[in-house]
User: Fold this.
Amino acid sequence: MPRPLAAAIREVSFYSAVLFFVVIAAFPFYWMVITAFKTNSDLYTLTNIPFWFNEAPTLAHIKYLFTQTLFARWLLNSLIIGVCVVAITLVTALPAGYSLARMTGRSGETLGIGIFMTYLVPPTLLFLPLSRVISMLGLQDSMWSLVLVYPTFTIPFCTWLLMGFFKAVPREIEEAAVVDGCSILGAFIKMVLPVSVPAILTVVIFTFTLTLQEFVYALTFISSSAQKTITLGVATDLVRGDIYFWGELMAGALIAAIPVAIAYNLFLDRFIAGITGGAVK
Amino acid sequence: MSAVLTKDIVKTFADVNAVDGISLAVPDGEFMVLLGPSGCGKTTFLRIICGLERQTTGDILIGGTVVNDIPPRARGVAMMFQSYGLYPHYKIRDNIAFPLRTQRVARAEIENKVEWASNLLGIGHLLDRRPRQLSGGERQRVALARALVREPTVLLLDEPLSNLDAKLRASARNEIKQFQQRVGTTTIYVTHDQVEAMGMGDRIAVIDHGRVRQVGTPTAIYDDPADRFVATFVGTPPMNLVAWNGGHLGFRPENFLPRELIDDSAVTEFSFRVDRSEYLGSERIVYGVLEGLESVQEITAKLPPAHVDQESIRPGEWHAFAVRNSALCYFDKDGKRAIRH
Assistant:
């Protein structure tokens, strides 16, 4: 086979594969975007081509979301829960991951794996016992129950992630700081944390995304609309009986997805460094 | 007064004595080298002096005070690590200033001292860079500046030259030594490299299996080894050892010469069969065996090429070699040096 032809075939097959996955990944997003801006008559006329606008785009669904539903409140709830859970996770997982990486030697690794295992226990198994805990604390039907429950899966995962990262931080930096006049805590704050910014960012983004997309606990613990998170509110208050408010559903999902997508893209490099930091030494 | 005094330091890691009873006195201003093979406990011992490890038993005195329970930061020691341990997120200026900042030294004084230390080491132009932008040699100087800036009682160096290439290592060796003489800081220097130890140390402590085998000046260590370990660890090629009266007889390769080159009658003669020889420019290393004597390893002779050419030492032939009696060392069956042989 002539060389240019072989090269062409290679290129074509490479880009077809890429295209295939791009379509698979981007199509749902595209569908969400056009649905959010289609008029209802456009959406429900069966003779229309569904892949593009047949009538002029509209902002009616978004307007409906913000005026006729508690969407703004859900957005705020999700944000408050996310920020609180991120804070709780960092405060717990940073020292935990560091101690597991540094202090306990071999048993630390076993303990770390043990902690990670708890992350694998699914919420569908845990929501029953946890609902008892929540009711004992008098937090039924309150978004604060979620602030309490979400760390049960964010902390194990983030502790594991940070442990791997801290292991890759050269010990000599901390030891130099200890000789140069720091306590162990001082060395951790002044040396280890600044060097670990990629890992910390990863933890922040990851935790925030996990809380934003969580559904089972929110569904179990919350019933009044004013306490709902965005995932729960959109899915429960915009599906009434067997009527799906598709335009509003998609608009709500779109608005929730945009900040996360931006955050991921801005910190993509650091995010990858954080995820692989512990694995590749 | 001793700047550093250790009394019977033992450090046990899971049943193994990494440091097995080291007592060492380092006088004020001395450059003491801890020399030993890797895994001999010398770095652990240094870390114990520094306070990064806690000894299992034994006492450490720095400047006359027992520092067993004092954290590293309050011991008045500075340490330079093998890979330097520079703070990657700080500029060089802040790296050097860090030990002073933690002691809450006044800002103006910090600036003066950073300038003093960086000028001393010729890194004034690097102050606004970050560690990753520096070459190995520059990093090493920054680490030294950071260690010296607060004028420690004792400077601890853990194999500081092992990350440098051979050429740079020679100049850095010279630099550290000169520098130490100028500043006069008591220094403890850990290395496995005998060239560094011989070239830099006022005294050398040879360590093996967590014990001090000998402490002495480079001359004493080389000419007068206390036991077989020291004799064979120091010197390249190592001292020749042959079985002798139940113990071993040792002699340095450079003292093992053709009989006609030694103008002395108090000699011990050997019949030496040359197997091969290497010409290294300034010397010729000849390998072979001795007639009727069992040796620990191949016998080597280091000959001056000016006096011995290729023709006179032919492989496969027996030659009359000799060692001055004054250059012979006798070790008993336990490897200890015996006076008489």
Q: What stands out?
A: Residues 67-277 of chain A form a domain with the MetI-like fold fold (CATH 1.10.3720.10).
